[in-house]
Amino acid sequence: MKTKLLITLSILSLSLFSQNWSLINSNYTYNYAVDEVYELSIYAESISLNGSDTTFFINKIVVNCDTCSGEEYGALLRNQPTFFQKEVTKKVNKYIFSDSLSFSILSHAESNDTWIFDTLNNINAEVVSKTYESVFGISDSIKYIRLSNNDSIIISKNYGIIRFDVPDTSSYLLIGIEKPTENLGYIVPKFHDFFNFNIGDVYQYRNQQCCSNGGGNWEYRIKYTILSKEVNGDTIKYIRQKDFAGYSVFHCSWFSPIDSFYNYTTDTVIFIDSVLHFTNNLNYELYSELFPVPYVSSDDTIYYESTEVSIENGITTKQFRINPTGIEPYYFYLPENPDILLIDENRIKKIYKTGLGLTYQHFGWFEADSFEELIGYVKNGDTTGIVYGDDVYLQTKEIKGLGNEFIIYPNPAKEYITVKFNNTERKQISDIFIYNVSGKIVKRISVNKNAVKINTNTLKSGVYFVNIITKDGISQRRKLIIL
To answer: CA spacing 20 to 30 A to 446: which of 134, 162, 204, 256?
Structure first.
């Protein structure tokens, strides 16, 4: 009886091992790495049913075209297949991958079973072993497949292709799966990861604009300090303190002259998540969208956008190279082959980084050029790069504020300060922020009156800056010394 029970359990185990192998799930996105670095995401854009067969139409990618000619800055090829090819057809006991290459995997094959993997290239496949292993911390059935060209494929019963060797190029290793209800392993950062700012974060930008026709050149320094954050579903709203200083070198003939100036205010910025948002793109993805181009009369310009994803020091970067069409003389596709996109000197470029948002953008059109880059930031009290102190901004000409309509006393102070408006007709104070010289908020007071007394005995001796914001959105900054 005991022997019969063991045989029954063994047969049941083999039966479970061989059933329901799924190499692709239409609800999953599979993330693959090359040399332990994220490289590619694969998912089914749509499916088609034909009797017992299911065909998965796989996402396409854009790749560099080394053999294309016609443009000195190179070219891209769109609508190109991943190593899954463009279609995967699931039959009763095998999966057929087809496009530029055609090959098949017998998902139910047992150890030592062989079949023709690639007919055109005369490559055979054999299951050399099957076992149970941990995949994303979960035990699963695994099969090791060896090809006659010495490449290998590893498949998992529940998680698809774990490893896939591409001849003479790379080995793709599965590092993550994004599912509707849960995620496993590495997940490609998306919208909320890029725009995840915290109250007190400071972001320092440098912006330069120039006119190539001998017109002009000027530079801005813009510093944003996050004052408040509100998340509501797909929408993130921030209120920021904006310090804006400009320095004109010389002037474009068609722009009004600009002297050096300083403008400080608060603004509200809203980020809305969507399927087509830049930061939701995966590596090598391409899509077209309408885009307003500066200095061009048409506001409905079609552009093609290619995505490059990289990871360094725990920060994920998504870089977008944008190629507009329909603006003479910049045509970026060949009518005889619309899958070839010509690159024209990267006239538009955007870079996003997780936790930092937009860190670089460049526009180059006609006789004008503009770029903005993040040169420094403060997060969690730590400063990276260059962040200008408030004394740098206060050296420039003030163009907006409250003038001398409010006073701070005593100044220098020890235990407390009083902030009071001289003009009682002015709308009431909304918020008061006290910053240290590094730009970090050390105290915030929300009020609804024309005068307020603030306790400062917790502040260390040194120089601070007090920023006052009225109900009507006007702001003014003053230097404060604590003894």
So the answer is: 204
* Number of other CB atoms surrounding residue 157 within 10 Å: 21
The token pair that represents 283 in the structure block: 């590596």
Q: How far is CA 38 from CA 145, 188, 294, 320, 465, in A?
A: 23, 8, 35, 17, 44
Q: Which residue has the higher pLDDT, 359 or 67?
A: 359
Edge-to-edge strands, sheet with 441-446: 441-446, 429-435, 462-470, 475-482
Q: Token pair of 44, please?
A: 């089914």
DSSP letter for each residue of 296-357? -S-S-EEEEEEEEEEEETTEEEEEEEEEEESBTTB--EETTEEEEEE--TT-EEEEEETTTE
Interior angle at CA 32, CA 31 and CA 38, nearest 5: 95
SS3 193: helix
Beta bridge mates, 4: none
CA torsion through residues 81, 87, 90, 91, sign: negative
CA dist 205 to 167, 187, 223, 281, 295, Å? 45, 29, 6, 24, 23
d(CA 111, CA 346): 52
Angle at 438 between CA 436 and CA 444, to 5 degrees: 40
What structural domains and CATH numbers belong to the chain? 19-185 (no CATH), 192-379 (no CATH), 401-482 (2.60.40.3080)
Classify burial at 274, counting beta carbons within 10 Å of its beta carbon; exposed 0-12, middle 13-18, buried 19 or more.
Answer: exposed
Check whether the bond before 167 is cis (ω within 30° of 0): no
Q: In 326-470, where do the E strands start and end?
A: 333-334, 337-342, 348-353, 357-365, 368-379, 382-385, 406-409, 416-421, 429-435, 441-446, 451-455, 462-470
pLDDT 10s digits, 236-270: 999 988 887 765 544 444 444 445 556 677 888 99
Mean pLDDT value across residues 383-403: 60
170 contact partners, CB below 8 Å, separation of at least 6: 34, 35, 39
pLDDT class for 311, splitting at 50, 70, 90? Answer: confident
CB atoms within 10 A of CB 43: 19
Task: Give CA–CA dist 350/361, Å, rounded.
Answer: 4
- Rounded Cα distance between 468 and 299, Å, is 39
CB 211 within 8 A of CB 217: yes
Q: Confirm if 226 and 238 have CB atoms less than 8 A apart.
A: yes
The predicted-structure confidence for 346-357, as pLDDT tens digits, reads as follows: 455 788 999 999
Q: What is the pLDDT of residues 14-32, one digit of tens each?
A: 444 456 899 999 999 999 9
Beta-carbon contacts of residue 335 (< 8 Å; ≥ 6 apart): none
Place of tokens 């050399």: 128
Is the pLDDT at 159 greater than 70, yes or no?
yes
398 secondary structure, DSSP code: B
